[in-house]
């Protein structure tokens, strides 16, 4: 079953295509190369193997609609009307391969957002009601989300019909702890 989605919770506009247990995400070559590197059969380093366990499975790439899509495990399968949140984790959001201008721009952005103070930032989110209708969308809301209100943004994605979903919080905390301990 193919279901296209215009849901965008982060800074990269484009279409995601959900096909059962697969998610096709249009992305840049650098992201595709990361997944190819991470899932290379040449890796037997325990650190890389552990990182794989925290990432969606990678099934390769497909050319569609004039672009290249990375084919990943659909981590939202089984969730009815899932809310989306895109976070950028880490205080350094560039690589040595980026231009000086890009690095400078990233440094400025990091200093003016929670990346600089908390080590992560929410780049966007989509909140849906019990029928799957979008009730809130934030895209590239870098300066709207601060240290003072970031907890409110997290609450939005773990609340359904006014009730905080404790199991979702436990999953979020557990997954975050695994990343931090890695």
Describe the structure concisely for a colleague:
With 182 residues, the protein is α+β, with helices and mostly antiparallel strands.
Count of DSSP-assigned helices:
6
Mean pLDDT: 85
The class by helix and strand makeup works out as alpha+beta
Helix content: 25-40%
Strand residue percentage? 25-35%
Which strand order spans the largest sheet, edge to edge or round the barrel? 1-2-3-5-4
Count of strand segments? 10
Tell me about the largest β-sheet.
Answer: 5 strands, antiparallel
Uncertain ranges: none
Order of H and E elements: EEEHHEEEHHEEHEEH
Global Rg: 17 Å
Q: Give me the oligomer status.
A: single chain
State the end-to-end distance: 35 Å
Shape from CA axes? globular
